[in-house]
Amino acid sequence: MSETDEGRDQAVETAAASLRRQPPLWLALIIGVAALVLAALILVQIVPPLYALVFPLSTPLPDGAQEVEHGKPERGAEYRIYRIDMAGLDVAAFYEEQGSTCRYIGTAEDALDASGGVHTVAHCTGTKESGGQSVSWEVYIADGYREDQGPTRFRLYRYGLN
Length: 162
Prior knowledge:
This protein has helices at residues 3-21, 25-54, 88-97, 108-113; strands at 66-71, 78-84, 101-104, 119-130, 133-143, 152-159. By secondary structure, the protein is of the alpha+beta class.
């Protein structure tokens, strides 16, 4: 045998040995698919909390509501008092559109017939969920304030994120 034949034989043996060391293509595909599935499972767990951090949940507010007072008592829920130039029944209807359940105090005629005094219109409760987070609220709506005070005010209690 000549030197060229020996070199060729050695090159063939080296190529054959490297082919034996490479995993088969189907094994590489299975590992790749498993890695993608694992990445998807991890993302499903991570994305909702990150979304809630970037876009935190807030309680719904009708357009034009102006904050009058903000209270954070030592005990109990945080609350805010708002004034708005809408009728109390319209504010309650807004919260019902946002998914709240409202309990009306009296009838619409009682509210319209009130003799200029402040009167409670409705009590609404609701919850909003997104990205594994939730926020709940309670709203007490009152009508009959002077024009410079309202004429409608509502107290919004916000119950923390879970």
